[in-house]
What we know:
The structure holds 2 protein chains of 2 kinds. In chain A, 31% of the residues lie in helices and 20% in strands. By secondary structure, chain A is of the alpha/beta class. Among the domains of chain A are: 2-110 and 247-309, 3-Layer(bba) Sandwich (FAD/NAD(P)-binding domain), CATH 3.50.50; 124-243, 3-Layer(bba) Sandwich (FAD/NAD(P)-binding domain); 422-485, Arc Repressor Mutant, subunit A (Orthogonal Bundle); 497-556, no CATH class; 635-803, Sulfite Reductase Hemoprotein, domain 1 (2-Layer Sandwich), CATH 3.30.413.10. Chain A has a 5-stranded parallel β-sheet with strand order 3-2-1-7-19. Chain A has a 5-stranded parallel β-sheet with strand order 9-16-10-11-12. In chain A, strands 21-22-25-24-23 form a 5-stranded antiparallel β-sheet, with helices on both faces. The mean pLDDT of chain A is 90. Chain B is mainly beta. Chain B has one domain: Rieske [2Fe-2S] iron-sulphur domain (Rieske Iron-sulfur Protein). Classes of the chains: A alpha/beta, B mainly beta. Chain A binds chain B through residues 491-492, 513, 523-527, 529-531, 549-551, 553-555, 557-558, 562, 564-566, 808-809, 812-816, 818, 820-822, 837, and chain B through 4, 22-23, 27-32, 34-37, 40, 42, 48, 50-51, 60, 64-68, 71-79, 81-82, 84, 86-87, 89, 91. FE2/S2 (inorganic) cluster is lined by residues 61, 63-64, 66, 85, 87-88, 90 of chain B.
Amino acid sequence: MQQVIVVGNGMVGYKFCEKFVAQAESKDFKITIFGEEPRPAYDRVHLSEFFENQDAKALEMAPAEWYAEHNVDLITGERVADINRSSKTITTAKDREFSYDYLVLATGSSPFVPPIKGVEKEGVFVYRTIEDLEDMLAYAAKINAEKSDGRAAILGGGLLGLEAGKAVLDMGLEPHVVEFASKLMPRQLDSRSSQVLQLKLESIGLNIHLSKATNQILGDGKITAMEFGEDDVLDVDMLIVSAGIRPRDELARACGLEVGVRGGVVVDNTMKTSDAHIYAIGEIALYNQMIYGLVAPGYDMADVAVQQIIGNTDKLMPADIDMSTKLKLIGVDVASFGEPFMPASKGHSIIFENKTQHLYKRINVSHDGKKLLGGILVGDAADYSMLHQVYLNGMAIPEDPAQLILPTSEGGALLGDVMDLPDEAQICSCESVTKGQICGVIESGEATDLGSVVSCTKAGTGCGGCKPMVADLTNATLKSLGIEVKDSVCEHFDYNRQDLYKIIEVKGYTTFNEVLDNYGNGGHGCELCKPLIASLMATIHADTANKEYAIQDSNDRFLANIQRNGTYSVVPRVPGGEITPDKLIALGQIAKKYDLYTKVTGGVRIDLFGATLNQLPLIWKELISHGFESGHAYGKSLRTVKTCVGSTWCRYGMDESVSFGIELENRYRGIRAPHKIKGGVSGCIRECAEARGKDFGLIAVEGGWNLYVGGNGGANPRHAELFAEQIDNATVIKYLDRYLMFYMRTAKPLQRTAAWQERLEGGLDYLKEVIIEDKLGIAEDLEKEMQTLVNRFECEWTQAVNDPEMMKRFNHFVNSEDEDDNLVFVPMRDQKMPEPWV
Amino acid sequence: METILDKYKATELTNVKVWFKAASVKDFPKDGGACIKYKDKQIAVFNFTRLNKWYACQNLCPHKMEMVLSRGMIGDDKGIPKVACPLHKKTFSLETGENLNSDLNAIAVYPVKVEEGYVYVGFDE
Lengths: 838, 125
Ligand SMILES: Cc1cc2nc3c(=O)[nH]c(=O)nc-3n(C[C@H](O)[C@H](O)[C@H](O)COP(=O)(O)OP(=O)(O)OC[C@H]3O[C@@H](n4cnc5c(N)ncnc54)[C@H](O)[C@@H]3O)c2cc1C
Ligand code: SF4
Ligand code: SF4
Ligand code: FES
């Protein structure tokens, strides 16, 4: 049994173990892996996700049990302190000795902290480990508790620095990125694309300071400012240093292995160091005089080392390493691939730029115009995966290469079909999965959908950048096998929502049965198609849910939200969140009278829980007499338009966010849509109303409103994307009318705006063409349709309580006045709740 | 101990001892349901107009033991008439009571007849 010792349980060290134990030959070896960090290896690439959920377990590459199950000895929290090459042993910081036949160094790197005076001060952090993040979060919380306008700077405007910038924003501090060079991401971007990126980042609230050399860090014990020149000082409460990495080669140096001038353990294309029994892989390895600070090359190195050790000596590290990268910041698309900058001697560049849309695309093409050599995409990297593949596989490009980057409206070509890629095309570079493997598992029947493709091949489990392409390949392969990827609404119709919309509109049907009898499959409907058609009727004919109540989902049928024990909750509309004390008192009195559990909702309205069916109309009669109306909290319809107080009260306000929010909420109240719709209006870029987390959001800026669309909270939080800038109130309404109506016409059932606009062919650009430029010539119709809905709005509850026939609906029994006798409430703090479910 | 579930036993037409006059046909929505009270029982009654049939079953959803089935939407699952619980959309055959989309126990179903504009539900006690 030969002993393999791995030093460093990081991403690459772990990948080495994973690849090693997958080999049949591994039974002749025993692996022991040492990690200095307290936990098993985790996914550093997605480290920033820790800010969202603080769930370290979710980031683990594999749980501790995995190592045991695969006969790997995992020793965490113990640093290897010394290597004795002559005796082939190592010593740990706990003074334990182990001997090896093969030693693999996977010690990674540590953040480089420049020797600036004062960097040791409290409040200065690096960004590499989970512990770093925990410390930062704690510190940021302290700042936020002390003041509302805390600031944090990031030293370094590279890939990582910008990611840290976003994290700072999410921690609630004002981010300032300080870069020494004259442009952002100096290693990946040219100056023009950097400028475009800078504009874009500034628009989402990152402050950028270029060409700044930091002289010292000021503060008494803890950081209070950074000093660049004599009169050039930036006040900050916190600093994150992200100024590059330094390989952790201290062990290698101490035992006399060959290292590079600027650090890193020298390896050849077998990953061997200057000692044939010692390998180095990952960010510690200096290969081709380079440290590759990306995970994919590290994984390839792990593979080479595994093969070499088990005796497969043919396996070598390729000389060319793909350094293409896509920045994974939400809301900012940036990618570069191949040779981003290229000397004119090698080929020529084609550049497309649109500064107002924060768009820059550059491709570099060989002199003969036949090969794509590299490129840069800022603002829209939707084509990254495809361009990257074209580059990697040396695929043919259009005669006029400009078509690759021009918008389709200006003569751009739609990029080739994913199925045109050669089978060897590497789709997932993190896990080295080819197109052939992906299609293969589907063709062999091993995988039947995206989920099983991912679990069979591991494609998309690394950085995740290839996921859209894996999905496209999966769908295309399924289709080629004749397996239909159906989107008909349910077994009763062979149509999707958009088809049914057109059918009802053109045929003028007004009842569910008409649609079902003429276009159904002969069945009788179900809980999927009934509420869907009810919603379409509401959009097309401005019907309220009272019209055909038996096809409504329970919530719409009883105009209230059904809760755990079959009672309902009541949410009156409070437009923009503005409410008079008198109305607030009325709400309180009604809640008290009917003994309703009362809570402020996430959408900042007041929710009264525990109303029985029989009580609903009584409660509503009282609410209506106090001037309330239905809040449609039960419908797939507009919920709230959340507002901040804006210039009415706020010292920063640039416009009347409350007034506008109320106007919008009253405009769109009651309309039924594929899913719920929420809005937000903030009076300035401080964004107190969290408008970008909504389906539509407005932020007041100098000269008008910035309109954002397609955001949501929920299971998959999304920030809305910038749609139009500095527009006036009337234009906002015009665009929103069109946008919402277009969404209502074309989305799938239960699809929120974010998912809808993401899957629209042509994406946001196409949407802008339709909504702003009226490419399809439907803008006027959309506006008219919306205006009809607005004009015909009626409060459903007012309708119901004024009609004795409708009132009958709200009885628990049709043959008795009794209430549901199965209800049991128990006390909860000072209120009540339904008895817990067993 | 008798649980509320024990109150509901499927009743065959042949075992009906009492035809309970529940309510007028007009009290039930077309292709929808409403709840009736019989002694200490809550029974969901559905007017399946498209099939020109009436169905009755316990109002109690066996998933979380709530009295809600009468408020569910009805329809069919490959031809089997069904009701979908409004809380988590478990579906039950209106013919046999069988749970169609997971493995809950069947619900109790009862015979229904309509005479002179009134709806009667059959019980064995
Ligand atoms: C925030 C962030 C975002 C990133 N985003 C991307 C991205 O989008 N795409 C991409 O490709 N790359 C990204 N990277 C880089 C990527 O994480 C690294 O390339 C990768 O982690 C390198 O793996 P490694 O195993 O070589 O080093 P590491 O993951 O750093 O692992 C080395 C481990 O060895 C341990 N160690 C060191 N010395 C010893 C010793 N003497 N004894 C015991 N243990 C020791 C260390 O504690 C560490 O746990 C990102 C990095 C960060 C920090
Ligand atoms: S977003 Fe609104 S409340 Fe917040 S600072 Fe700006 S104007 Fe004031
Ligand atoms: S998050 Fe879940 S538990 Fe909470 S209200 Fe929404 S659905 Fe219910
Ligand atoms: S309570 Fe009926 S499905 Fe859950």
